[in-house]
Specification:
The protein is an alpha+beta fold. The chain has helices spanning 34-43, 69-81; strands at 4-6, 14-18, 24-28, 30-32, 84-91, 95-101.
């Protein structure tokens, strides 16, 4: 399941569970990482993921651009490239993404 993994946004979530001897046997919190992946794809610029150098929108590049169409197209392209089905992406005051992984 691509949308399930280690929750690390904004910080890695750790809730250690110890056995009777005090050893940690569980601890890293897992859950739905779809929105986390979306945020990383939007913020990261191409080249930041060394194994996938064309991955990333690079939202900072679009900050001074009044035309949001290219930005929205780049977001949609990256989400689809990651295997998400995109319902809608819009940007006015903030970025709204309606997309997710098919299970």
């Amino acid at each position: 399941m691509k949308g399930f993994g280690i929750l690390c946004a904004p910080d890695l979530l750790v809730q250690p569970v110890r056995d009777d001897d005090g050893r940690i046997i569980r601890g890293i919190v897992l859950g739905d990482i779809t929105s986390q992946n979306q945020a990383m794809l939007v913020v990261a610029a191409s080249g930041e993921f060394k194994a996938h150098p064309t991955t990333g929108v690079g939202a900072m590049e679009y900050l001074r651009d009044d035309n949001t169409e290219d930005f929205i197209a780049a977001v949609c392209s990256q989400l689809r490239g990651d295997g998400m089905t995109v319902i809608s992406v819009s940007y006015s005051e903030d970025l709204k993404i309606d997309a997710g992984y098919d299970d």
